[in-house]
Amino acid sequence: MGELILVRHGETAWSQSGQHTSHTDLPLTERGESEARSLAPLLSDRRIGLTLVSPMARARRTAELAGLDGLRATPDLREWDYGGYEGITTAEISRTRPGWDLWTDGTVPGPEGRPGESPADVGHRADRVLTEALDGLRSGDDVALVSHGHFLRVLTARYLGLAPAAGALFQLATGTVSRLGTEHDRPVITAWNLALPESVQRAAREKENAA
To answer: What is the mean pLDDT of residues 55-59?
Structure first.
């Protein structure tokens, strides 16, 4: 049986600044594009039979630069709907809501069409994605999920049989590959936050800029 390959998109201006980003469709930064390209060697030896991608441009661009093809846009893979906290940092939220914790408190409603989500809401979406992805693993090939930091952390918690809020335990960096598999038929994390060293990525960026 294959594994679930989790790919978090590369850096954007808001992931760098710590601003919550769900529906705002920001492009990758130069560093983010470099991060995405550097994932290709980490994926090249995997036999990926299905690639599900968030509909956001930053996720699709990451998948393309990482060498993934046959992309299937999956709305349930979008990031946590931050509602009224879109574009705001945790430090800014805490000034008016001391002790706020996304993982237990969720968000507040934003503009029309942006109601925000609770951890349970995101968990329900993750469960739907897992149902589709685990079915795809029956072929024996891997299934790649290209998505966002908070959502993939909730999905990991749900895969392990934990509550959505347990995603708080799984820090996930931009432009990384992680893997979920099994050991003795028990769901486990088989790799986490894989990336080429920053020095290698920086050298590649310098080479591209000099070309």
So the answer is: 98
